[in-house]
Prior knowledge:
The protein is an alpha+beta fold and 163 residues long. The chain contains 4 helices and 7 strands. A 7-stranded mixed β-sheet has the order 1-2-3-4-5-7-6, with helices on both faces. α1 packs antiparallel against α2.
Amino acid sequence: MKINEIAGEEGLGLLRSILGPLRLEPGAHEAMLATFRRELEEVGDNRIICVGEVDGETVATVQLILKDADGDPELADGRTIAHVHHLRVRQNRQGKGFARRIMADVESRAKALGFGTLTLGVDDTNGVARELYRSLGYVEFKAEAGRSPGETLLLLRKSTLTT
Ligand SMILES: CC(C)(COP(=O)(O)OP(=O)(O)OC[C@H]1O[C@@H](n2cnc3c(N)ncnc32)[C@H](O)[C@@H]1OP(=O)(O)O)[C@@H](O)C(=O)NCCC(=O)NCCS
């Protein structure tokens, strides 16, 4: 998998293609694109957005938020702590190790920028992602109300990037 940082309209096209065969609620596809568009506006300042490509197809994406993640300095502080956001692997490419590979890449980028700690949020109901992060050494340090009623957002961190 070839992993590159993206920006602008070209980046939006690459992110659009990752949504390809996803079956989403009506309107959810457009909402996700609007979110990607907003996030791309922060590239170069607060955000690095990466995509992984295999055989000319975008198969994975992940973001690194550098200094402001929901205004919570425990999640990103621009100096020592950065926040991993929106890890996604194209549905028909899941289970092939792409998430593991793009996570390793984003950890190296964070380390090269001097960050020693990475944080991320995961829904308590997302067993696959929780197992991935557990296996990569991320541990829970706090929890917040999730996006849906009854759901909890678990906040995890890994503090060994400099060792
Ligand atoms: C979570 C997600 C990114 C995993 O991507 P993936 O490319 O399929 O993951 P990988 O193949 O790299 O597998 C990594 C680990 O995830 C876990 N995993 C992957 N598929 C799994 C499954 N079906 N059941 C249980 N665990 C699974 C395993 O721990 C696996 O490690 P292993 O293969 O060494 O056992 C992908 O399912 C996805 O995009 N989901 C939708 C978006 C999402 O939930 N993102 C996370 C937001 S916090």
